[in-house]
Design a protein that fits this description.
single chain, mainly alpha, 18 helices, 2 strands, 2% strand
Length: 494
């Protein structure tokens, strides 16, 4: 037994053990150090896992000495390994940023609990990506969700408690729908192992229990995904939670939910059942367009930047689900690559606003007047990531929309290309409002304390902002990852 063979277990055990250690230490500084070490270790483990499966293979890790499908299996393929890498890298960038931000926004006696909940959330998100058991997905989903409720509630604004409660209610409904769907699948197939499920559903075909299970799973995951119109929990959750929580959740949580969507729709149920026998593409298309326009228009009228970015996230999720609804190679590639690109863009944007909150204690648009002259590096980060949200050529946002447009043209849908451009113009309006206020309005805050944030906060968001430009010019990695993932998904590989 080698250390390399235990990497799938270490991916989960390390953050769980780190969470326990943070809870026992009760010291914010020591807890941050533990969380930092664990977070930096995660990308290393993820990279080692990715190296083992990058040629198209997979890792099957048996738990408890019980061989699958009877025992719980961790199963990592290229798609899962890339998602694990994405979540791990975001976590590794969040932690250096978190020390100063958490110290500013969270009371000292609660900081150790913050890092405890963060590591539990990280373990849950990583677990969803690597487990090969449908019920175990539910377990990890609940671990990440329960810890997320606490992270949101730690915001200083009293409305953070209400936001956490709203998310609790919606998250519980989503989890209930999911577990009912899993129960129906078990009743129809007699297994919870994803590989076995794929094989048995192919044998029995789209029977009523299978279709009912599909419906419950889609609704449950859509709630976790914040797919329009099931997004009502997300704006408040992102607005009133601590800044570091908003950045982490925006960059990771919804991406993991998208992964579940892809895994169940394309791998477990299969393209034939979902996209040829049911009106799923049409439904996804309508909901995606509604998200792209409805949420973006609402974002234009927000006077709180965090809330504006929250509604922007709902709109950007619409681009991802649009690619899923197109269900052809180019369209799906656009959706998958936007999953990666949006994590970079929105992580940088929320970090930049968190830096402003760190200095002036507010994310209200009027309070940011002229602050670009006091915090130039922070506002440049925001501008670069904002240009990517718009889809400016030379940024990752343009790459995503380019593939989506190609997917639409493959279907002969010129009108959808027009809608993609029109929705981007709405993004230009709400990002442009912020740029105009921070650079061209008279300076509102003039104190010496208003200056760019420490390097520990500035460096992580600058890395993400630079990545939005670099991977917008060199798409070989991100688009290459997306194309490989799409090949696997369209082939129906479990």
């Amino acid at each position: 037994m080698t250390l390399e063979s235990q990497l799938p277990a270490l991916q989960i055990v390390l953050p769980l053990f780190g969470a326990l250690l943070c809870a026992l230490l009760r010291s914010g500084s020591l807890a941050w150090l533990v969380a930092l070490v664990v977070s930096l270790a995660m990308p290393v483990i993820s990279a080692l896992l990715l190296m083992q499966v990058q040629d198209g293979g997979f890792i099957s890790y048996e738990l408890g000495g019980w061989a699958p499908p009877w025992g719980i299996e961790y199963r990592i393929d290229v798609v899962g390994a890339y998602l694990v890498m994405l979540v791990s890298v975001i976590g590794a960038l969040i932690m250096p940023y978190a020390r100063a931000s958490v110290a500013k926004e969270i009371d000292a006696d609660k900081q150790a609990w913050f890092y405890t909940m963060y590591l539990l959330c990280l373990a849950g998100l990583l677990g969803i990506a690597i487990t090969g058991d449908a019920f175990n997905i539910f377990v990890f989903m609940e671990i990440s969700s329960l810890s997320t409720y606490v992270l949101i509630a730690l915001g200083k604004d009293r409305r953070a408690l209400l936001s956490a409660y709203q998310y609790l209610i919606m998250g519980t409904i989503g989890a209930t729908f999911y577990v009912i769907g899993v129960g129906l699948l078990y009743a129809a197939t007699g297994t919870l192992n994803l590989v076995e499920l794929t094989a048995r559903i192919a044998e029995i075909g789209p029977t009523r229990p299978v279709l009912a299970a599909l419906a419950f799973l889609v609704v449950g995951i859509s709630l976790k995904l914040a797919l329009f119109p099931l997004h009502v929990w997300l704006p408040n959750a992102y607005t009133y939670s601590p800044s570091v929580v908003s950045a982490f959740l925006a960059a990771t949580a919804t991406k993991v939910a998208v992964y579940l969507y892809l895994r169940f729709l394309f791998s477990v149920f299969g393209v034939t059942v979902v996209f040829e026998g049911l009106p799923v593409p049409e439904i996804m298309l309508v909901l995606s367009i509604a998200a792209m326009f409805g949420a973006s228009i609402v974002a234009v009228f927000q006077d709180d930047i965090k809330r504006m970015l929250a509604y922007s996230s709902v709109g950007q999720i619409g681009y991802i689900t649009l690619g899923i609804g197109l269900a052809n190679k180019m369209g799906l590639t656009g959706g998958v690559v936007h999953l990666i690109n949006h994590a970079m863009m929105k992580g940088a944007l929320f970090m930049a606003i968190g830096a402003v909150v760190y200095r002036i204690g507010s994310s209200k648009l009027d309070d940011l007047a002229g602050i670009g002259r006091k915090m130039p590096a922070t506002t440049i980060v925001f501008a670069l990531a904002g240009l990517s949200i718009i889809g400016t050529p030379g940024t990752v946002g343009f790459v995503s929309k380019w593939y989506l447009a190609l997917g639409a043209l493959d279907k002969g849908w010129w009108w959808l290309v027009f809608l993609l451009v029109a929705s981007s113009l709405i993004s230009m309006v709400y990002i442009g409002r912020v740029i105009e206020v921070v650079w061209f309005r008279p300076l509102r805050h003039t104190g010496p304390e208003v200056r760019d944030v420490p390097v520990s906060m500035l460096a992580p968001m600058a890395i993400l902002a630079a990545a939005t430009v670099y991977f917008g010019l060199d798409t070989s990695l991100t688009a290459g990852i997306a194309r490989r993932a799409v090949d696997i998904l369209l082939a129906g590989a479990p």
